[in-house]
Specification:
This protein is of the alpha/beta class. The chain has 2 domains: about 140 residues, HUPs (Rossmann fold); about 120 residues, Elongation Factor Tu (Ef-tu), domain 3 (Beta Barrel), CATH 2.40.30.30. It has 10 helices and 14 strands. A 6-stranded parallel beta sheet has the order 1-4-3-2-5-6, sandwiched between helices. Helix 7 packs antiparallel against helix 8.
């Protein structure tokens, strides 16, 4: 899949799905279905025009591109959303972006899509334009409730990764570089990869999680390590089951599968090791079930 800045879009007709698509969840997939191109915005528009800034995001641009590519899309066009772009009227967005630069033959959007200065444009604005065909996709709901990025963020904050997965259509993934840590896990017999957290992205509730790290079964601790320190910074520590090697400096992709328990403070190292033994066994069972 090609990733193209808007100003470098080649001169060709496109069937384009337009939206922020944070998380590329089931609703987004319906909007994207049948399109050869996705038009998205970077950074999130609310980072520029929102009074409270952007929400904690589900995906980086790179993660979004990977998920979009898996849907068979040929090209992702990225609009740099800055103050100048935010002043563009709805009519200018249609004329300059969709018609002149993207050369849209078909446009697909969600029913709640808004665009242009002061969000003056909506799906009816697009339907009224005869220069392209417009497809408007109603909001998607499942047995677990309505599908939206904001609801998925709430589920992840609560540690409900299984429901979040059903709404996303894929596991929630955390990505970060492996950095030096205190090496306490190694001393306890459970060496961990300490993953830098991206402050722009959502993170689940503190606790112990079954996960897949770079496609290998793992158990992760997310929190402040209350057994060893008070008021510590939040950290994601990942122990890859049955793995030996050096991960320092590498990028780790951690698919969070299930919250096993909350973070706890233990009175002794022996108690902690016994619990880590149980956590590892529980995580292995979850990972095995996921693979079946």
């Amino acid at each position: 899949m090609r990733i193209t800045p808007l100003e470098q879009a080649a001169d060709r007709r496109r069937s384009v799905a337009v939206g922020e698509f944070d998380g590329v969840h089931l609703g987004h997939r319906e909007v994207i279905s049948g399109s050869d191109t996705v038009l998205t915005f970077e950074p999130h528009p609310r980072a520029v025009i929102g009074s409270q800034g952007a929400p904690a995001l589900l995906t980086t641009l790179e993660q979004k591109a990977k998920l979009v590519e898996a849907l068979g899309v040929e090209e992702m066009i990225v609009v740099t959303f800055d103050q100048e772009f935010s002043q563009m009227t709805a009519e200018q967005f249609v004329d300059r972006v969709l018609v002149e630069q993207v050369r849209a033959l078909k446009v697909s959007v969600g029913a709640n899509f808004r665009f242009g200065n002061r969000a003056a444009g909506d799906p009816d604005t697009l339907r009224a334009d005869s220069r392209f065909d417009t497809r408007v996709v109603d909001l998607v709901a499942t047995a677990d409730g309505p599908v939206s990025s904001s609801r998925i963020r709430d589920l992840i904050r609560d540690g409900d990764l299984e429901t979040a997965k059903r709404l996303l259509g894929h596991n929630f993934e955390m990505v970060g570089n492996v950095v030096e840590g205190a090496k306490r896990g190694r001393e306890l017999g459970y060496p961990t990869a300490n993953v830098e957290l991206n402050p722009a992205l959502i993170a689940p509730a503190d606790g112990i999680y079954a996960c897949m790290a770079n496609q290998l079964p793992a158990v992760a601790s997310l929190g402040t390590r209350p057994t060893f320190e008070t008021g510590g910074s939040r950290l994601l520590e990942v122990h890859l089951l049955d793995f030996k090697g050096d991960l320092y400096g590498q990028e780790l992709h951690v698919e969070m599968l299930k919250r096993l328990r909350p973070e706890l403070k233990f009175e002794s190292g022996e108690e902690l090791i016994a619990q880590m033994d149980q956590d590892s066994a529980d995580a292995a069972a979850v990972c095995k079930a996921q693979a079946e």
